Amino acid sequence: FDLTRRAFDAVRSEYNAILNRIRYAPILYVDETSIHVQGEKYWIWIFATQSEIFFVIRKSRGMKVLTEVLTRKFKGIIVCDGWKPYAKFTNRLQRCWAHLLRESKDLAEKFEEAIPLHEALKALYESLTNALESDPPPEMRMNLWNLARVELTQWIMKEYPLEKIQKFIGKISNGFNYWFTFIINPSVEPTNNRAERALRPQVVLRKIFGTLRNEKGTSIHERIMTMLATWGQNGLDCLQMLTAKLTS
Questions:
Q1: Rounded to whole angstroms, how far apart are CA atoms 40 and 132?
Q2: Are residues 82 and 104 in the same domain?
Q3: Could you list the residue range(s) of the whole structural domain that residue 149 is in?
Q4: Is the pLDDT confidence value at 1 over 60?
Q5: Please, which residues bridge with residue 203 across strands?
Q6: How many domains does the chain have?
Q7: SS3 56
Q8: What's the pLDDT tens digit per position in 220-229?
Q9: 196 shares a domain with 81
């Protein structure tokens, strides 16, 4: 335990530097998953860029965590799922297409009426990602953006007899302005796979240790995990880096 406390202190300034970079990131991939602290449900939040991965553990899954971590000055684009606090926090969003297509596929497997909708969404996504592979100029991107919105509107406006499909259409409609940010902004990815991938080791750890023991344990966990994940993301040797921090 003393070693983890020492490591916690040794990486403080670098952890704070990562937090500062996250706050000024032009594009941020954000996700959250549950974790237990003393048997109570908490949330581990991840904020990821191409070069940083930042974790915090909080009791809340609400907007106040976004406000605390990113502050109201955050001007970047957030790539995320459809969890409501994101849209309350900012209108600069890209909703995750992987989530959308998983959900439409699930509906199509259960209800025949959902098959055309799933196939249309999948075809729309594939045609857009294919068209963007050549990195078209801004005017062509704008044209694609307009066409995509028209196409999606046509599917939203159709009549759907089943309540589950209606509910799904409601989700698409509520996030309408956030599905196509990636068309206009070349650096924005259309899925939140970056954050989901970085969260996976936390899901594995959760299965191994079950619950964190106390608040101090959560602070140590979020700080050490931030450093290990960020070093790993940048191709650095985590053990070597941590040893250097402890012996400097």
A1: 45
A2: no
A3: 97-177
A4: no
A5: none
A6: 2
A7: strand
A8: 888 888 988 8
A9: yes
